[in-house]
Amino acid sequence: MNKRPFSTPPETVILAELSAAEPDFVSGTALARKLGISRVAVWQYMEKLREQGFTFEAVRARGYRVLTRPEGLSATLIQSYRRDRAAGFPLQLMTEVDSTNDEAARQLAAGQEAPFAIIAQRQTKGRGRFGRPWHSESNGNLYASFAFRPRLEPARMQMFTLWMGASICDLIASFCRTTPGLKWPNDLLFDGRKAGGMLTEARMDADQIRDLVFGLGLNVSLPPGGWPADLAERAVSLEEHTRQPIDLNKLTAALIGRVRQSYERFVDGSYKETFADLWNCYDVLRNRPVAVLTHTQRVAGIAMGIDDEGSFLVRTEAGRTERFRAGEVTLEKPPR
Ligand code: BTN
To answer: What's the CA-to-centroid distance between 184 and ligand 1, angstroms?
Structure first.
């Protein structure tokens, strides 16, 4: 597949320039020079932004500045906030889809050039591990999938989700100034409640991953009517936990940048330099009494972290260390 050089759409560049200069104005001439286009063309791109819900203040001899931004997710706004936007990573924002993971897989199967991201305001069949439904109403939370064609051995899949989880925890920690927890293999937690989940799915050729979709559901806000009854005890959002409003577009921009960079570090192997430290920093299970449920057994013991392949380690009462490549972990009450 040919790789086209990526170029940022002019309206994204205009928005980025205006945001960077705030509260100052940016002249039409400066924008035209930056983009190598005429001032009339600048004005036409600003009309496009107005159609998307942005409003601007235009003052003679000073230029433009942003007055208001559209409410909710905006693909142009997200891309304009990305510090690494020159690196590409097209983003499609959908009002509604069955599952962003399924949509990404369909587009990959249809030959869409990767990487790319799909974000939906609402999913009708959002799902998590073991095919469980993922609550996906249009409520200010994030439902995102990132599509890649990595050409890696299938055995590396397990580590991919763990690395992405550690990396995303690290981003959330610096973006929200709070420390999330990681529960092997794919849960992001605050105080034992679930704030996010990851679902990595891949299609395989005989000895290689053909394409890979990394799905992320992140609870950013408390839904307007509160959590549904079955989630009320178990779910928490970043805003509830931090008691701070979170700009979903800025957070999404930072996430795309982090996912892109972490993917590259996974493929070139440099992730190994930091993975263990990051995982240990966010692992909430280590040294705690747990039970692992697999298709065939339930094993209780003390969590001992993970091994080099990302398998979960449990020291049983009998003193054996058991390794799990898959399974569901629950925290047990410590013996009195
Ligand atoms: C889990 O905790 O079991 C994983 C949840 C993953 C949910 C996300 S939301 C975006 C993407 N699309 C889906 O259908 N699932 C993932």
So the answer is: 15
Residues 6+ apart with CB under 8 A from 154: 202, 204, 207, 208, 209
Ligand 1 proximity of 80 Cβ (cutoff 6 Å)? no
Give, using CA atoms, the residue closest to atom 7 of ligand 1: 217
Pocket mutation for ligand 1, best pick of 91, 124, 127 (most atoms within 8 Å of C-beta): 127
What is the rounded average pLDDT of the residues 81-89? Answer: 91
Sign, Cα dihedral of 37, 41, 46, 48: negative
The 10 Å Cβ neighbour count of residue 154 is 14
Q: Model-level pTM greater than 0.85?
A: yes
Best of 92, 98, 101 for a ligand 1 pocket test (most atoms within 8 Å of beta carbon): 101
Domains of the chain as residue ranges with CATH: 10-68 (1.10.10.10), 75-282 (3.30.930.10), 289-331 (2.30.30.100)
Measured in Å, how far apart are the chain's first and last C-alpha atoms? 61
95-142, pLDDT tens digit by residue?
Answer: 999 999 999 999 999 999 999 999 999 999 999 999 999 999 988 899
pLDDT band at 335 (very low <50, low <70, confident <90, very high): low
Q: What pLDDT sits at residue 225?
A: 86
Centre of ligand 1 from the C-alpha of residue 44, in Å: 39
